[in-house]
Amino acid sequence: xxxxxxxxLPLAMMVLAFGTLIIAxxxxxxxASLIGSRAYGExxxxxxxxDAGVEHAIWNLTRGSLTEQIPDTGDTVTYQLGxxxxxxxxxxxxxxxxxxxxxxxxxxxEDAIIDSLEFDTSYGNTPDIIQVSGNVYAVAYRGNGNxxxxxxxxxxxxxxxxxxxxDSLEFDTSNCIYPTIINVSGSVYAISYQGPGSDxxxxxxxxxxxxxxxxxIIDSLEFDTSNxxxxxFIHVSGNIYAVVYRGNNNDGFIKTVRIISNGNITNxxxxxxxxxxxxxxxxxxxxxxxxxYAIAYQGNNGDGYITTIEIADNxxxxxxxIDSLEFDTAKCAYPDIINISGSVYAIAYQGNGNxxxxxxxxxxxxxxxxxxxxxxxxxxxxxxxEPVIIPxxxxVYAIAYRGNGNxxxxxxVEITTDGDINNSVIxxxxxxxxxxxxxxxxxxxxxxxAIAYRGxGNxxxxxxxxxxxxxxTAAAYxxxxxxxxxxxxxxxxxxxxxxxxxxxxxxxx
Length: 509
Hints:
This protein is mainly beta. It contains two helices and 33 strands.
């Protein structure tokens, strides 16, 4: 036992020395790890705050008001987030690299009416509106006592309507139904209408560029002494004009008349054709090509018909119809026909069940329509009365009509140049929630349109609306968000409420 005495001390010294060699590096490594973890944590927090800054800017560009602060390319705005994130302040700088443009989908209708005018506080039925000059427009209509009136109004390019009528003339003191007004020459205008005794009349008036109407009628012609119902008027050539109407025994008639540029009307009819010996309700005439014209109307059994005829430049009408098509075998009232492109035409009308229908067909330059209907859309399954169709831009068209509850509606639809109709309506606006009888719509400027109609209380109303005519293009922005030692630079494109991230780069100070 005495020989082992003192042997533990060297062993203890060895263990202590070994521990010293191991513990010192371990403690150093542990300290370095703690420092690195703390720095890493701070970097993560700073980057998260920068991320939040970029995301806030994107939200503000697509759903907030930031785009209004930097509308033009090169505009810059710098701000700090309203609340500190992780007790840190984040600064955001946004620069417009490209401002983009447009307002959304072509054919979208603004919800709010731009302006409104009650142009007749007594009665204002079956109005027909035409541009006179610049901001001046004339409305011919059936007014108080069922008499014939014409009034001028002022509508600016942005849709603002002057609060009062410019001038007024009672052109028929007995009766006026379905007036149609067209320009003859300069300040001379002609109005065809169903007058006293339901006879057919044409009268000429003078309207100055500023809206002043001469107090007396220039000239007058009773073109049919038996019946001249629902007439439509069109210029043929030179001083020759054609009026199509429902005549004796409700048959379809067309007559040509001569109106001189000064408003004088020759007392005799140039020529006459009874184009339908059964029925000819609500006719609408359109020029096709050369001496060829087409008439859409309600024919036998209330069905929809279109017929082509030939009218020479001197007013002589070929004695026989060129071609005819029954485009709706159930019902057609108040058809309105327009050209789409080339030989393609569209007809909006009040169809079966009084629903709103739109059909396309082809009419060749020689008047042939044998190919039949190209496409069909029932654009309103409740009511589509008294429709009027007008081009908006490109392949987009607007239809104003009296819809459900007799309210005033306008819709937009797409019709391709080959006659294909998109199966769904682009947009709808109820422009009058009380009444919208016999609307007539006219283009003012850009996406601004005016609608004249018989509204609440049977009074005459005029309203302006806006339809988007420019497809939106993406805007480009640079967003720089900085928090502490971190900066994130992002490049994004925005289109309305949609944002596309082009790049997102993290930088360190």
